Amino acid sequence: MKKLSFIIAMVLATGFSVAQKTTYLTQGGYGNSATITQDAWWNVSANKIYATQNGSWNTLTIDQLGKDNALDLQQGGDNNGATIVQSTFKRLTDQNYALINQYGTSGKIDLTQKGYILYSSNDVSKHISDATQSGSGGIFNLVQGSPTSGMNSNTNSYLKQSGYDNHANLSQSGETNDSEITQLSTSNLNTVVLDQVNPVFGGNEQSKSWQYGNNSAIEVFQSSIYDSREGSNHIYAYSNQVGNSNTTKIEQATRDEQTVEATEQGNADILEVTQR
Q: What is the mean pLDDT of residues 52-64?
């Protein structure tokens, strides 16, 4: 078994210089592991990682802390996994971005994107995830947003899974949350669980989900608490299921505008909508 680790050292600098740290990783074979750490605490730099792993039973661990974090990950083979944490400094233009393509059966992605420090109440960090999993038995876990109540964030997630028995679990916390999920299958047993929460500020929550196959399920929860600006909260959920014995459950909670558009095309389907 080969193990490869990269530690991108902190660079000491006076003031906040805009530098950049970049890592290129390529691994091919069986049972490889890689760890990449990029820490820009002292010079507030941008971080970039380009990683490719081909083969089976490979693992990747990534931790990025910087002004802007970017990841391009390509994994091909079965039983591969990646654990990724991206943290910004929570300044106005800070952004986390992850582009992930995982091909093969039983792949797993755990992705966390968050703002770390709030410089002012008007700063808004952005978190963007664009992921594709092709194969069966895939798991995609995503947490986006600021971990501390009161921090602004804009979160965007785009996910496409193809195959059967794939599972998507997403949690978005911010002022504006946006999610698009597509699961394509000629078979069964795909699931989507999505939570969109605006913990402090009025804002917009939007989710769009598509499922093609049988015995699959979509579960969406959206909430935005009271905001002093009347009519400032807007929650929208769209779902489309094509197949038999599918289930959709959507729950929305806000004092302002709520909209659900749900379509089910098939037999023995179940739809449950709660707006409060």
A: 97
**In the structure encoding, which two tokens stand for residue 68, read together?**
């802007």
Residue 243: what residue type?
G
Digit-coded pLDDT (tens) for 140-165:
999 998 655 445 678 899 999 999 99
Scan for tokens 């599918």, then name that residue: 246
* Rounded distance between C-alpha atoms, residue 245 and residue 77, angstroms: 31
Pair of tokens at residue 259: 């909209």
CA distance 175 to 154: 6
Residues in CB range of 179: below 8 A, 6 or more apart? 156, 157, 158, 159, 170, 172, 194, 196, 206, 207, 208, 209
Give the torsion through C-alpha atoms of 216, 175, 205, 149, to 10 deg: 50
Q: How many domains does the chain have?
A: 1
User: Whole domain around residue 204: which residue ranges?
Assistant: 3-275
CB atoms within 10 A of CB 196: 30
Count of residues making up the chain: 276
What pTM did the predictor assign? 0.88
Residue 26 to residues 34, 36, 52, 55, 76: CA-CA distances in angstroms? 10, 12, 5, 11, 12
* Token pair recorded at residue 13: 């600098």
Q: What is the pLDDT of residues 211-234, one digit of tens each?
A: 999 999 999 999 886 555 555 678
Cα–Cα distance, 12 to 54 (Å, whole number): 35
